[in-house]
Amino acid sequence: MFYTHRLAEKRLEETLNNKDRNRDTILVEGARQVGKTSLVKHLCSSRPHLWLDLEKEKVFLRKIDATNAFEEFSDLLAAEKNFVPGQGRILVIDEAQESRLLGGYVRYFKETWENQTVVLLGSLMARLFRKDVRYPVGRTHSIKIYPFTFEEFLLAFNEELLLQKIKAWEPEKPLSPPFHQKALQSFQVYLTIGGLPEVLQWHVHKKNWEEKLKDLAYGYTEDFKRVEGEEKSALFELTFKRIAQTLGSPSKLSTIIEANQPGYRLLPDMINLLENWMLVFKIEIETPTAPGVSRIPPKRYLFDHGIRHVFSPVSLRISEVVGEETRLGSTYLGGIFENAVLNEIKPWETQKTVVWRKAVNSSEIDFLFTKNKMVIPIEVKATGKMNRRHFSSLLEYLNFSGGKFGLLVSAGGGAVYSEKGKSIYQTPFYAIRQSLDLLR
Predict the structure, then answer these.
(1) Pairing mode, if any, of strands 25-29 and 140-144?
(2) What CATH number labels 9-144?
(3) 372-420 pLDDT, tens per residue?
(4) What is the 3-class SS of 175-191, one letter each residue?
(5) What is the pTM of this model?
(6) 69, 152, 232, 418: least surrounded by Cβ within 10 Å?
């Protein structure tokens, strides 16, 4: 079985080791094919557990949905699966969202079952708590799983030496030119292949990973057909594709379909579905006059680089972005690199990441990232050089907010620029996590 260390392992293991008498239900969430099942199986392999897969066990799923109360559900588990809560076995239910009733039973896992750990996972977990089911506030603990970060990508390809070098990176001590070039080239490959475990497995075993990537990409449309029906599947795929093609730009509905065209009124629900399935990330644009609310349309990005490449192929050559400015320095190319940075910081997100503008029509900070109550402004540039005009907006934000540190993420090897008590860390694309750790 193909498995590599995941950054979420530690958080999930700590949660599994919880010995509270009444425990929150663990919800392992993420898009299809990001490795949720492999991660949970890896951590449960050395622990007593009962594993149920409701996508495969259709007969048992029907029996769950035929129960009339939680007590009857408990009896069903005891009678057919020999499962009695509180006896030391973890209950794991995969594809939990397939059940109509299970979401309504979640609150009782904590309220009724003592000394029992329950893990629910699935690809479309937004469906677990259906419209007629009240979300069990204070009774769940959510762990989100994303495609492989660049660090996990290097682990999957056994690039331990390069990873060691990157982990030792500091802005004042950048990698040597040979390792810097190797790291950038590996990052370029990552932006094409993406971080879906099965695609990486095919690549490692020298199989046709590009075909596997396409199969998975269009498999999301098949998921939509299965859940929502075939009638709107063309609109689903078009929405996915247009978001892939407009990364880095404010995401208006009219950029997907013109307002006078059929399907336009269906777009809000369609986009909301993509976001709930964690296939698309919405990043709001904030201004000081209206924090959290903006008249500017949000930006949207995709959850995986490989999927983006399927729907909007672009030939990325890192050698073209190590000069003063890339010749391909279009808004879209910048959007691809913004997407790369967002996917690197998503696993560490504790509050919503936003775009920041001082005024509606002013220049913007690509991301405000909050870590341990520290707000870190991040600017992304498709360049290998660093000069003051590249980070003038960062200095403007720091002067406005009173902050002291900002990140300029680019193809450069690393540097620090200081001005009037403000410091800008120029960080290469491959060392974003290291910069965040240093700032923390």
Answers:
(1) parallel
(2) 3.40.50.300
(3) 788 999 999 887 777 788 888 999 999 999 999 999 999 999 999 998 8
(4) CCHHHHHHHHHHHHHHH
(5) 0.90
(6) 418
